[in-house]
Amino acid sequence: GQSLEQPSEVTAVEGAIVQINCTYQTSGFYGLSWYQQHDGGAPTFLSYNALDGLEETGRFSSFLSRSDSYGYLLLQELQMKDSASYFCASLLYNQGGKLIFGQGTELSVKP
Amino acid sequence: DADVTQTPRNRITKTGKRIMLECSQTKGHDRMYWYRQDPGLGLRLIYYSFDVKDINKGEISDGYSVSRQAQAKFSLSLESAIPNQTALYFCATSDSGGRTDTQYFGPGTRLTVL
Predict the structure, then answer these.
(1) What DSSP element (H or E) covers B64?
(2) Does A100 contact B48 at a Cβ distance shorter than 8 Å?
């Protein structure tokens, strides 16, 4: 079957660094995406890794290790507005642009 | 104006009623998707369409049907709504020519079935 595992909740303080892990078991894996969702609003795209290694976009970075079926999202210099749910999603090459989402990690940033 | 719109934004209905949720996009994307979101279960794919003539079932298509009326419009129907279809429904689009296949989501429709 297809599955992605990520922690359900993470708490951190403002200004800190937090890492949200994602392990996946998906056939036809092509790449790993990350999405952010605030309070039941529209999920928005954050980053995508097709190759092993680190992708950096401002305060956010994402990492992928295909051999370990593992990735993470790293958020630096945390701000209160980063409190949200974060989803990893596996892109499947044998099904075009189909995404399988993890269950989401709710990040709470405390002052 | 929003690139991906959904109507209605909220709907309360009764068991057994037929419901249609509509999605329109101005992004010019060829691919469209319907997801449902339940607390603690993330986003689950109901149906997806890679072009007007291509419709595919997702993980949880039972009890749902779709229609791709045009490249810009993709509707989701619940033929006979039941309470466990109470959820937040999202439409999304993507461009087949994109490198990352980024999906762009609409604002969601909150559906309650009594």
Answers:
(1) strand B64-70
(2) no
